[in-house]
Amino acid sequence: MKILRDKKAIAIFLLPAFIVYSLIVMVPIIVSIYYSLLDWNGIGKKTFIGLNNYIKLIGDNVFKQAFVNNILYIIIVMVLQLGFGFTIAVLLTYLKKGRGFIQTVYYIPSVITVIAISQLFTGFYSYEPMGLFNIFRKLLGLKPIAFLSEYKTVLWAVASVEGWQYIGIYMIIFYSALVSVSPDILEAARIDGASELQILFNIRIPAISNVIMLSCILSLVGALRGFAAPMNMTKGGPNHRSEILATYMYKKAFTSRDYGYGSAIAVVIVILSIIGVLLISKYMDNESE
Amino acid sequence: MYRKIGVIGLIVSMVLIGCGTKSQSTQSSSQAEGKDGGAREIHYFSSRSASDDTIVTLQEITDKYNEQGGNIKLVIDSNADRTSYDQKLRTMIAGGQMPDMFDLDATPYAAELGEKGMLTDMDAFLDEIGEKDSYIPLALNYGRTADGKLYTLPLELSTEMIWYNVDMFKDAGIEAPKTLDELLEDCKALNDKGYTAFGIGGGDGWPLLRLLATYPFRMTGNDFLNDLSTGKAKMSDEPGMKAAEFMSNIGKYFQPGFSTTDVATGLNLFLSGKSAMYPTGTWELNYFTDKNRPEGLNVDYFYMPTIKDAKTSTNDYWAFGGIGLSVNPKVFDEQYKDYLTFIVKNYSPAYFAHEHLAPQKVEMSDNSKFDPLFLKIMEDTNNIGTTAARPWDVVLNEDVIATINDNLPGLCMDEETPDEFVKAVDEALDANK
Which residues cross the membrane (chain A) (predicted)? Predict the structure, then answer.
């Protein structure tokens, strides 16, 4: 292992990965930044327009709406993934039998492609022919709802798909962390008369705080990448009510052929993603200190 | 030191060779020879489903061409979702990967491509092979861009109509509407009887666009549309306002969830007796013939209703050559030209044999083989007027169409007022002048 002390040798070993990473991650970002400064429709002359695309973004009401929708989308996805994932993981720790089976069942959606899941949910949400959710509503004596068409329900409906899909992953992460908390401490707390809720909030959650923060980052980054479900289910509609930044970027670039403006939105998404991750990692650093 | 430089050089060159190999593999597909006996491959990117009779016919003709000594392999990449097709095609072209043959409407985009010499001039080609007169003018001229240029060959002749459930209409005590006001009254009568008046594929965009375009077409012919595209008219002008108000009124009679319903689901709703009306075109005629229609379902159709003091006649309605066939001029050599000539000379009779209206004049010797419904539609087409309605999504800029498609569902659901709708469209028109 003498070779690992030689920094130049380390650099050489890292070089292939660095070159590949640069080519597939950094180059597209740099090219997007370049395109965002142009007015280009894909076939005509590329005209340099400076920051005009970014200035246009500020006055674009649809962009503003997509931005707000995106924040709501992230909140819904994170609450579902982390909230349900954690709750199920806690309940699993109390389960004596069938734990493996339940874990497998909850994990299955995570390995299915998001397009298939969105098709499945489009069917569940369907009004006519009546989908699963409306059959349940009918059984409960409620009126059916066109979930994907109504302004009030559409964003919740599309965000829930991605939220639901990855509950299993967070359940596994939280469960692994929860069972690693020493049983002796839990037993001691029980002997001292602590209730299960007190044990959960005062012992278990503080013990796995690092895992919770890591899960927050994973969930946030995943939600920021959200695109396939809203695009596939509603194309951002009706009237941009389920539009998020990624779908708006895609539509501007590939439907309206405004590649410069689409690239400007893409650059904003990259900046927001970096800010989001930096904020959380800074918070994590403060916590660990 | 030299050894280290050598190692770095080796790694970099390995990476670059890897990338280089990939870029080489993306060379022009038509130049590549096929695996089977060196047949020339022509890559056709199609917006129709692989089972569509246009594609079936093209394949039949290619087989016939090869039987007569040709050596062409038609490689079909089918992408039936039109929005996704358009996006993929534009991305391919922007990336310098234009397919050898592809479907294209005579949109402003096609005009731009044509101006830059990126499309084959079909006027010149048809003149050269002496086949221009074989086409029905309605079908051929539909493929002309706003400046009158022809870059596409039509593969079909389609008309659009609204099918209705005869029993539901009888039960509601109504007849097929002749005017747009009667259409609204009929919808109300059906609604009062508990029927869903319209089963419409709003998720696919164009069925709603057709209804929106109806009022302006009856008021002005295609003038209002042409003026919108050239910036002479605004959506907030009278025909546009009337159109928006009409959509706001008729929208309440669409099935709930229409904005995410695709055309196939709309058709199923109608065929399963869950909706009273379904707007579509002759390409779906086979679903309504006596042979194929569900038993007990009585249907009939009516063409575009009119208005009082209409500028266009009742026999002027949606009629066009459908999305046409374009050819990449960079690969259009003598061999390709010979193959395309063979297609032009043989396509229409073969397509007609599949019970579809063909874009070229076809001699029909024996009509006993054809379904009566097909013959009736053919008779209608023979009596069609001189002004065919042009679809908005072919004439207007794609960004304007995207704005209309985004806002129309809200207008139909009463979530958006006609004023808000026309304002949004006008902003898009201004931004794309």
Answer: 12-35, 71-94, 106-127, 164-186, 207-228, 259-280
